[in-house]
Design brief:
The chain is an alpha/beta fold. It is about 35% helix and about 20% strand. The chain has two domains: about 100 residues, Rossmann fold (3-Layer(aba) Sandwich); about 230 residues, Alpha-Beta Horseshoe (pyruvate-formate lyase- activating enzyme). The protein contains 13 helices and 17 strands. Strands 2-1-3-4-5 form a five-stranded parallel sheet, with helices on both faces. A three-stranded parallel sheet has the order 6-9-14, sandwiched between helices. The radius of gyration is 22 Å and the shape is globular. The chain starts with 8 loop residues before the first strand and ends with a helix. The N terminus is likely disordered.
């Protein structure tokens, strides 16, 4: 009797943000730890998909990817809204939580080895978001902000540097609002029992900068409303912090910003950029922007064009709006034609990314 083939090849596909990239790396290493073999998509027995629900187009891409894998066992995690879960379940996709991945394979907690032979290392310092931008599902899929303990984040950076990573990326939906619990004191958090102050993001940057080694620290993403003078000063003065700030603008129109629930005006954003450039003359500023938001007129769009010309972004990630069920903006519909979104995308992309 012929032996049955042992199914042990896997492939991981991530869609969306750096958090999903980090989770994909974590997942890949945990699967290797239990004896599975990473391989190509064609050869894989198991396919793990990390979904992104920020834009409907992202979900559609993941759905299209899954639709072509009928002969494989497919697992799905990441940001998944309830309506999307129903769609994926109809395709015989098994859903799982990354925090409970061990339940898929073993009753014992897996030990993850996250040291990678690459120059960059992603280290999450917080999860979730409190901002509830009207177009975004992250607060619903990843929950409210929870900062990792200060000592845990610092120790992860030390491990990454010891593994010879030269670029350390600190990740969070809004790293500026990092509010890390203090170190343990006698088995309890000092801040919970002794009223010790919690650690803010600028303090975390300072502590990491003081670690020995040859490396650079990057961080993303930031929210303009929380980009404090202390953070700007840390980037300006600490030698191991890259002179690089990702500062999402999303729109140059005050009307659109209000509708997006972005609590700053175009003038406040430009004043912040001016402050950053004055303190860090060689800084590289990048941004995110959405074109074709439901109430964005041509006049609104031209205000975004004006922002792009005034700031002079090092790079811009230009996204075409797509409605997401469950967000506040969904009720506005999708009145801007896709061809018009394409036109606006090309204009901004040419201004920001011509180099």
């Amino acid at each position: 009797m012929r032996n049955q083939k042992k199914l042990n090849n896997f492939f991981v596909k991530s869609f969306g943000c750096q958090y999903n990239e980090f989770d994909a790396t974590t997942l890949t290493n945990s699967l290797k730890q239990i004896g599975l073999v990473e391989t190509t998509l064609d050869e894989a027995d198991f396919v793990f998909v990390l979904n992104c629900s920020v834009r409907k187009t992202g979900v559609d891409r993941a759905m299209g990817f899954v639709r072509n894998l009928e002969s494989k066992k497919i697992y799905l995690s990441g940001c998944v809204l309830k309506p999307d879960k129903k769609r994926f379940l109809k395709k015989n996709v098994e859903l799982f939580e990354l925090d409970n991945i061990d339940k898929l394979f073993t009753s014992e907690l897996l030990t993850f080895n996250l040291q990678l032979p690459t120059i960059s290392k992603f280290i999450p310092i917080m999860k979730g978001c409190n901002n509830f931008c009207s177009y975004c599902v992250v607060p619903y899929t990843r929950g409210r902000e929870v900062s990792r303990p200060f000592e845990d984040a610092v120790n992860d950076v030390k491990k990454a540097i010891a593994a010879d990573h030269k670029e350390i990326w600190l990740l969070g939906q809004n790293v500026n609002s990092y509010d890390g619990p203090p170190p343990l004191q006698g088995g309890v958090r000092g801040g919970e029992n002794n009223n010790n102050k919690r650690f803010r993001f600028a303090q975390l940057l300072t502590e990491i900068n003081n670690i020995s080694g040859n490396f650079l620290i990057y961080f993303t993403s930031n929210h303009p409303k929380d980009m404090s003078d202390e953070i700007i000063e840390a980037v300006a003065t600490l030698p191991k912090i890259a002179k690089f700030i990702h500062l999402p603008v999303q729109s140059g129109s005050n009307k659109v910003l209000r509708s997006m629930n972005r609590p700053y005006t175009r003038d406040e954003y430009l004043k912040l950029v001016k402050k950053i450039k004055a303190r860090i003359p060689n800084v590289k500023i990048t941004t995110d922007v959405i074109v074709g938001y439901p109430n964005e007129t041509e006049a609104d769009f031209q205000k975004t064009v004006d922002i792009f010309k005034k700031v002079g972004y090092f790079q811009a990630y230009v996204n075409k709006y797509s409605p997401r069920e469950g967000t506040a903006a969904h009720k506005l519909g999708d009145p801007v034609l896709w061809s018009e979104k394409e036109r606006r995308w090309r204009i901004l992309n040419e201004i920001a990314n011509k180099n």
